[in-house]
Amino acid sequence: MAEFGSQERSSFIASDRVEGTAVYNPAGERLGSISRLMIGKQNGQVECAVLSFGGFLGIGNDHYPLPWRMLNYAVDKGGYVVDLDKEKLHGAPRYDLGREPEFDEAYTRALYTYYGVNPLF
Amino acid sequence: MAEFGSQERSSFIASDRVEGTAVYNPAGERLGSISRLMIGKQNGQVECAVLSFGGFLGIGNDHYPLPWRMLNYAVDKGGYVVDLDKEKLHGAPRYDLGREPEFDEAYTRALYTYYGVNPLF
After folding, report:
1. Contacts of A42 in chain B (CB under 8 A)
2. What is the dihedral sign for C-alpha A100, A101, A105, A111?
3. Domains by residue range for chain B, with CATH
4. Residues of B in contact with A40 (CB under 8 A)
5. Cβ contacts of B98 within 8 Å, gap of 6 or more
6. Does residue A105 register a pLDDT over 90?
7. Buried b (16+ CB within 10 A) or exposed e, B56-65
């Protein structure tokens, strides 16, 4: 698990500290961990964080991109809590290791629609 | 060096592919590599990419946060080209390994001012 240290109190977080951080649902069940962030090259906006699980040696095989704003860091858990149950994950946009989709505007729009999240900040 | 693969043509890039990517100045000199991205927790905005060099085993000791928009990926170089010479780096905001500054709004504002970059997109 990533070490947050003093960054827990900061309004900024380092990308390599997000990667590897555990993700839980509100019931406290561990869903997996964040494997990477997808960033718009032009505007530097993190569009989604990829929740990964399964696989071998910590390299998840199941990948679920989630809108960044769905992640809420819980200090007591040392990980993110996402308002998401396994039923909602069933049917969510996902991909297998090595078979990444084209993360374009249409893809991220569909993702935000699926989770009912407003893409605008 | 990070593998970009098909992401070269995409408008999105994965955080773990940015980390480790080489940074060159326009003269083609290698300045170092990107060690991490600093992200606003609330808005998911990448405020800066940390250019690191020196140190041991690829773990740089000298860290220079750069505004994200200063990075331009050059396919032929397989790395970022930043309009920056060693003279400009001298005197730039920097920190040693393990002695991270507080990345707050004042810090990033000073950073953008130093490099003459508009923080607004």
Report:
1. 11
2. negative
3. 15-98 (2.30.30.240)
4. 11-12
5. none
6. no
7. eeeebeebbb
